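step 3/5: co-fold with adenosine-5'-diphosphate
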Amino acid sequence: MLRVQKYGGSSVASADHIKRVALRVAKEREAGDDLVVVVSAMGQTTNQLIDLSRSISHNPAPREMDLLLSTGELVSGALLAMALRDLGHGAVSLSGFQAGIRTDTDFSRARITQIEPKRLQDEIGRGNIVIVAGFQGTTDDFEVTTLGRGGSDTTAVALAAELRAPVCEIYTDVDGIYTADPRIVPDARRLIDINYDEMLEMASEGARVMHNRAVELGWVYDVPILVASSLLDDSGGTRIHGGELMENRNKVRGIAHDAGIARVTLLGVPDRPGIAAQVFSPLADAGISVDIIVQNAGQHGLSDLSFTVTRDDLPETLERTREIQAELGAADVTADDHLAKVSIVGAGLTNSPGYAGAMFRALRDANVNIEMITTAEISLTCVVHQDHVEDAVRALHRAFSLETPDDIPL
Ligand code: ADP
Ligand code: ASP
Ligand code: MG
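step 4/5: write C-alpha cells
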C-alpha cells in the first residue's frame, strides 16, 4: 500500500526528533508499505528565517522571501533521508520542484496548480522512501514559491490525491483535532472524526492544526485525512472525511480562534454605488484577503467602512487603503492591530438562530466586549480584543458543553 505521511515542524525539531521519525518510517517500510513522506522545516526555522530577513530589509522582494523560506524544508528533508539511509533503507529527498509540484505565481500564498508525478513514481518504483520538502513549489517560470504558513499539510494532501493514496496521514504534536486548541482549553476533547466542511471552517477561522487549503483539497479530491500524534505510536487520532460521523449530533463541533487580526476603518466614505468595488478590488489585486466587512449607516451622504485582515497583511493593507482614501476623498484611515476572532463552528448551526444568542450571552458573562460580528452557514464569529480571546474560547467551550460528548438542549 502507498502511504503519504507528513511530519510537522515540532516533530522534526532536532536531530533526535528526526532520528525518531526515521525509526517510525523505517518500521512502516519494513512492514511492506511504499512511503512518501512530507516534512516541514525544523522547529521554529521558518519564523527564524522571517526574523532574519527583517533584520536585513524592511521590504524584501517576494521572490527572495519565498526562496529563503523554502530552504527550511530542504534541510529537514535531506536530514531525514540521511537518517533513513543510515538505517539501511533506500531514501531520497526531493525539493518541491524535483517532486513536480507546480504552483501559480502568488508568492507567499501560492496555490498548487498541478503535480507532475513522474519522478515520484520512478523513485517509488526503485524502492526508495521518497521525502518531499513541504510548503513549496515552482511556477512555470521556475520561480520558487511557498504555499502560506502551515502549507506543508497542503503538500501532503495534494500528493495523496495525485498518487491515489487511500488516506493522507498528518503527524503533529497533538493526537488529533480537539473541540478547541488544547493549549488554551485544558478539558478540550479529541474528536474521533469531523467532516470536511466543519474542519475547513475551523481551519479558516484560525485552528492552525490543519492548513485550510489542505482540508479543501481533501474535500475536492475525496482524500480522507488522519491527524495523529508523531510521538504516540497508536494515538487513534482524528479522521477528517465526508461520510457519516460517529458523533453525528446537532451541536457546535468546536471553537476556533485567531489571535492575529487587524481592523482597518475608512472614515467619511462617500455613500454611493460602486464604492465597495473601488475599495476592495485594489486590495484583492494586491493579494490581500479581506475577511469581515462592516459598513456603518451613512449620514450626510458619508459612511464608515471597517474590514479585517491578518495582522501580517496590515502594513501593505494600510499603504493601499491610504491610496484608496486619497482617490475617494475619504476623511481618514484608522487601524487597530490588537484584535482577535473567536468562532463557534458546526453543521448544526445552519438555520438555528438560538446559537447566536447563546454565544453572545456566554461572552457577556465572561465580560468580553464584542467588536464585530459575522455569520456564515456553519459558523458564527466575533471579533474581540486580543487580550480577551483565550477567556472567550474557554467561556464558549463551557457554554456549549464541548467537554462532554452529549448534546445540549437549546
Ligand atoms: P505542525 O508543526 O505539526 O504542523 P502546528 O503547530 O501547525 O503543528 O499545529 C498543531 C497545533 O495546533 C497544536 O499544538 C495546537 O496548539 C494547535 N491547535 C489549534 N486548534 C486546535 C484544535 N482544535 N485541535 C488540535 N490542535 C489545535
Ligand atoms: N514551515 C512552514 C511554516 O512554518 C510550513 C509548515 O510548517 O507547514 O509555516
Ligand atoms: Mg502546521
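step 5/5: annotate
The radius of gyration is 22 Å.
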